[in-house]
Write a structure and sequence with these properties.
The protein has 555 residues and is of the alpha/beta class. Among the domains are: 1-76 and 512-555, Urease, subunit C, domain 1; 92-213, Diaminopimelate Epimerase, Chain A, domain 1 (Roll). The strands form 4 sheets. Strands 8-15-16-18-19-20-21-22 form an 8-stranded parallel β-sheet. A 6-stranded mixed β-sheet has the order 3-2-7-23-24-25, with helices on one face.
């Protein structure tokens, strides 16, 4: 064979894989992705093979490389990597949508009307359950009462969780079934609200909710599956291709395994086992579950709780609440107990994420991580997390760096809480609250989430809050404590690359770089170039995961 012919054959062989190694070309898009360094990249086309990205780039160049790949015309729409929620509650989202949903109610009267209507529509339900209420929005200046629920549903027990999940509201029938009386003591880590005569008023905070939870019938297998189906459909519709599910039990784990085996998951689930007790012992027998079912299910983390929530004044504070001088909130564990739980998880190779809202809880968490690392030095490499990191003493924020902790934060909490947060903790402590830039400037990874269904699962609400710190009416103009605003690139990174990093998945998810899963969305406008005020109203047109479409908007 002469030299020129040999060189020609080699050239053809070199080109052949490029022509054939693609089965999908998404063309004619206004594409954006971050690279592995967090730099924003722009492209016109996306080339995919077997569910993974081959390349992004120029439309003409990738069209030549596509061979016989199926071609999707993006019609010039903006394409982004699939968004990842670093802290949500998947089944709880489904339950919230399938039960009495009080989310967004503007008054006590509106909420009661919804409860009454739900009860009338479900005459066979033995219990009326649901949630999403927020007395701060209702401007009550107090918690609602059992007597108010009795007026609309007197004949069946009613049990409704507060929007943050850290308090719940019962009617008299529910309290009677649970045996709650004037003499019932507050359990550890919980509080029963009482009326002026000392009788239980109807609201139970944090650990006290277990008193009535124990009497509520467990959801059936059909109800669990329906909740998961509902949640997955809503997540796909808002552009979520992944979520860290912050607290699952054994039944939830088994359901996820079933869905993964049946190829029914339409989002990548990174599940955190709730606690280190019996369910953890069963789930962790074989060690962490990583990348199960083509990376649709990973279970390699544990979720713990240090305190309650700010809205119900259950968040544990170093000093009393500014608007409740006899209350410092609730710590759920003693330091030694928390350290032991962290150590148990680290010892089995599980990442730990700990819910901490108040500055006292955050300090306890930092202290316990430091103590646990002395017992398990390699545990520092597991990318452990503080979930919420909501109100942190300014002197404690720098401690995240040597402890290698991730701040798993929810931008919409700032814009939801701004109507009451400063009343709760005052001007000085607010400087360490929702303090995204304090963390980012010191190099701490901030993983973005929503805490749905506490907040909407729509990640564009989170991106908007991160960038503007305004509500959807543009209030307050210029943003609430705007010195903590994120840039759009920082916000995108929090909901893509850094959310993936928090799940040990940055090499397979979070950007549209070659070799990563082709998880992407098409949206109705250019959030990079358009005014920030439009971000929250972004509409998702299509959602794709692993190169397969899982959602398309109806015209």
């Amino acid at each position: 064979m002469n030299r020129s012919l040999r060189l020609s054959l080699l050239a053809l062989l070199a080109l052949a894989p490029a022509l054939q190694a693609a089965d999908l070309l998404v063309n004619n898009v206004n594409g954006y992705t971050l690279d592995s360094h967090g730099k924003l990249q722009h492209f016109q086309s996306l080339l995919v093979d077997q569910g993974k990205v081959v390349a992004t780039g120029n439309r003409g160049e990738l069209s030549k490389r596509a061979g016989n790949a199926k071609v999707i015309d993006g019609h010039g729409h903006t394409l982004l990597p699939g968004l990842i929620d670093a802290h949500g509650h998947v089944l709880e989202l489904g339950y919230a949508r399938n039960r009495a949903d009080l989310t967004g109610t503007q008054s006590l009267g509106e909420a009661l009307a919804k409860v009454k209507a739900y009860a009338a529509a479900h005459p066979d339900a033995k219990w009326i359950t649901g949630g999403g209420w927020n007395q701060e929005i209702w401007k009550l200046g107090r918690f609602p009462t059992a007597k108010e629920l009795d007026a609309v549903v007197p004949d069946r027990p009613v049990w409704l969780s507060r929007v943050d999940g850290h308090a719940a509201w019962a009617n008299t029938a529910a309290m009677k079934l649970a045996g709650i009386t004037k003499a019932t003591p507050d359990p550890h880590g919980g509080r029963i609200e009482h009326d002026a005569d000392g009788n239980p008023a109807g609201v139970f905070v944090d650990g006290a909710t277990a008193l009535i939870d124990a009497k509520v019938p467990a959801p059936t297998a059909q109800q669990k599956a329906a909740a998961l189906d509902t949640a997955l459909a809503e997540m796909a519709s808002v552009g979520l291709t992944g979520v860290s599910d912050a607290g699952i039990d054994l039944a939830n784990y088994q359901l996820y395994r079933q869905y993964a085996d049946a190829h029914k998951l339409t989002a990548r689930i990174y599940a955190m086992i709730l606690g280190t007790d019996d369910d953890f012992d069963v789930i962790s027998k074989g060690g962490p579950l990583i990348g199960y079912g083509d990376d649709f299910l990973t279970v390699r983390a544990v979720k713990l709780f240090a305190d309650g929530a700010l809205g119900s004044r259950g968040a544990a504070m170093l000093q009393p609440y500014s608007d409740d001088p006899h209350n410092r909130g609730l710590l759920f564990m003693k330091p030694d107990e928390m350290t032991a739980k962290i150590s148990k998880a680290l010892g089995k190779g599980y990442q730990v994420g700990i819910h901490a809202i108040g500055d006292h809880a955050n300090r306890e968490v930092l202290d316990s991580y430091a103590a646990a690392y002395k017992l398990h030095p390699d545990g520092i490499r597991l990318r452990n997390r503080v979930e919420h990191a909501q109100i942190v003493s300014l002197q404690d924020i720098p401690r995240y760096v040597p402890l290698h902790l991730i701040a798993s934060m929810q931008p919409t909490h700032a814009t939801s809480d701004m109507n009451m947060a400063e009343d709760r903790i005052g001007h000085d402590r607010i400087q360490g609250a929702y303090a995204w830039q304090h963390f980012l400037k010191q190099g701490t990874v901030v993983a973005g989430g929503s805490d749905f269904p506490v907040e909407s699962p729509n990640p564009f609400y989170g991106l908007y809050s991160a960038v503007t710190r305004e509500d959807h009416h543009g209030q307050p103009p210029g943003g609430w404590h705007p010195e903590q605003d994120m840039t759009l690139v920082q916000a995108l990174r929090a909901f893509t690359l850094d959310a993936a990093y928090a799940e040990h998945a940055e090499t397979t998810q979070g950007t549209l770089e070659p070799g990563k899963w082709a998880d992407f969305i098409l949206i109705d406008h250019d959030i990079v170039k358009d005014a920030p005020g439009k971000i929250w109203d972004t509409k998702v047109l299509q959602t794709w995961i692993g190169g397969k479409q899982v959602y398309a908007a109806h015209d």
